[in-house]
UniProtKB/TrEMBL annotation:
Superkingdom of source: Bacteria
One MF annotation (Gene Ontology) recorded for this entry: oxidoreductase activity
Residues spanning the signal sequence: none
Ranges where the Amine oxidase domain occurs: 113-358
InterPro entries referenced in this protein's UniProt entry, alphabetically: Amino_oxidase, FAD/NAD-bd_sf, Flavin_MAO
Protein family membership: Belongs to the flavin monoamine oxidase family.
Residue spans crossing the bilayer: none
Name recorded for this polypeptide: Amine oxidase
Length: 367
C-alpha cells in the first residue's frame, strides 16, 4: 500500500483539499499545529470559546456573485447565509477635533457582503464532518520535510515535545508561504528563488487586530444607523455591525494601531479606548457592552512571523511557480496566499485547495 498524501494545515484550504481527495478515494493525513481546526477562521461566543453561533474573530464576509468557487462550496455543504447589515446611515469621523458625521448611502452595497449563519466556523465544521476523524491530527507542528528517498519524510512535534516522523507520497502545504519559510526546514533545501518568494509573500490578515463590543440589542439600528463607520481619529479605523444571524448584537472594528504599538499598549487599554470611540460614534448606549472580544493576529505565532508586524496589501496573484527545483513534483502549496484568484481571502483558500486536489487527481488518472 502506498503512503498517504500529507496535508499540512487544517484551515479552509487544507480541509477543502482533504475533502476532495477523500471523496476521490485517496488516502490522506491532515496535520494541524493548533488544537482546533480552522486556522484564521475562528468563530467564538462571549466567553471566547469556539461556537456554532459565534462572532468571527477572523474573516466574516464573502461575495458569492464574484466568488463562484466559494459560493458553490457553501451551497454544496448546505450552509445558510445572510446579508451583512447595511440598512441605515454610516458614520464618518475625519478628525478628533471634529464631531462624527452621518451620511445616508444612495444605494445598497454592490456586491452585497454575505455572512454564514453560525459564523464562518460553520464552514469548517461542515467540511470536517465529511472527513474520517482518524485521518486528522491536531496539536502537531511540522518542523522538517525530507525528500532524499523515494518517499517524503515529514517530521512533526507534539505539544509535549515528542517528535514523530511519518512517510508520505506527496505533501500539500496549506499554510501561508511566509510562515512555511520561517518555521519548516527542508532537505534538500529550497532553491533560493523559491525561498525568497515564500519569504516575500505577505500573510493576509496577519498584521490585523479586531475588537468586538457585545450588546443586549443592536441599539444603533433603532437610531437609524447601519453600524458601519470609518474613522481617521482611531483607534478603530473601520467598524461594522457584527450581530449574528440569531440576533446576538455586536459591533466590531479593525484597529488602526500598528502591531508593535499594540504589544506595548496591551489589550485592556486598546479595548477601553475602542469603547470610548464607539460612544463618540454611536452614542452613550455603546458605553456599557455586555462583553468584549479581542484578537490580535500579529501576536499569533501560528499565523504571523516578525515580518508580518507591518501591514500591507493582499498577496498578488500570478507570477512564477511556488515550488521549483528538487521539490517541484513532491510539494504543492495550497495556502490562500498562493491562489490564482483572490489570494489571501476565503475564496482564495478554496481556489488554491481545488487546484492542489485537481493536480493530484490528474496524476492518478495519468497513471
Amino acid at each position: 500500500m502506498s503512503n498517504p498524501i500529507f496535508i499540512v494545515g487544517g484551515g479552509l484550504a487544507g480541509l477543502t483539499a482533504a475533502r476532495r481527495l477523500h471523496r476521490a478515494g485517496l488516502d490522506f493525513r491532515l496535520i494541524e499545529a493548533r488544537d482546533r481546526l480552522g486556522g484564521r477562521i475562528l468563530s467564538v461566543d462571549a466567553a471566547r470559546n469556539p461556537s456554532a453561533d459565534g462572532f468571527d474573530l477572523g474573516p466574516s464576509w464573502f461575495w458569492p456573485g464574484t466568488q463562484p468557487g466559494l459560493g458553490a462550496l457553501v451551497d454544496e455543504l448546505g450552509l445558510s447565509v445572510f446579508a451583512q447589515n447595511s440598512e441605515g446611515d454610516i458614520v464618518i469621523h475625519r478628525m478628533s477635533r471634529e464631531e462624527p458625521q452621518r451620511y445616508r448611502l444612495a444605494a445598497h452595497q454592490v456586491p452585497q457582503s454575505m455572512r454564514l449563519k453560525g459564523g464562518t466556523g460553520a464552514l469548517i465544521a461542515a467540511l470536517a464532518a465529511d472527513l474520517p476523524a482518524e485521518s486528522i491530527r491536531l496539536g502537531m507542528r511540522v518542523t522538517h520535510i525530507a525528500g532524499d528517498g523515494q518517499d517524503i519524510e515529514v517530521r512533526f512535534t507534539a505539544k509535549d515535545g515528542s517528535q514523530e516522523t511519518l512517510q508520505s507520497s506527496h505533501v500539500i502545504l496549506a499554510v501561508p508561504p511566509r510562515l512555511l519559510q520561517s518555521t519548516v526546514t527542508f532537505s534538500p533545501g529550497l532553491d533560493p528563488i523559491t525561498a525568497e518568494r515564500w519569504r516575500a509573500t505577505p500573510t493576509w490578515m496577519a498584521p490585523h487586530a479586531k475588537v468586538f463590543a457585545l450588546y443586549d440589542k443592536p441599539f444603533w439600528r433603532d437610531a437609524g444607523l447601519s453600524g458601519t463607520a470609518q474613522s481617521m481619529a482611531g483607534p478603530l479605523v473601520e467598524i461594522h455591525d457584527a450581530t449574528t444571524a440569531s440576533g446576538q448584537a455586536a459591533l466590531f472594528g479593525f484597529l488602526g494601531v500598528p502591531a508593535e504599538r499594540r504589544a506595548v499598549v496591551g489589550e485592556q487599554a486598546l479595548v477601553a479606548a475602542s469603547i470610548q470611540q464607539l460612544v463618540r460614534l454611536f452614542g452613550p448606549q455603546a458605553a456599557a457592552p455586555s462583553g468584549t472580544l479581542f484578537k490580535d493576529w500579529a501576536a499569533d505565532p501560528l499565523t504571523a512571523t516578525p515580518a508580518d508586524q507591518i501591514g500591507g496589501g493582499p498577496p498578488i496573484a500570478g507570477g512564477q511557480a511556488w515550488v521549483d527545483g528538487a521539490w517541484c513534483d513532491r510539494l504543492t502549496l495550497a495556502g490562500s496566499e498562493t491562489a490564482e484568484r483572490e489570494p489571501g481571502y476565503l475564496a482564495g483558500a478554496v481556489d488554491a485547495a481545488e487546484r492542489a486536489a485537481a493536480f493530484l487527481l490528474s496524476r492518478r488518472t495519468a497513471r
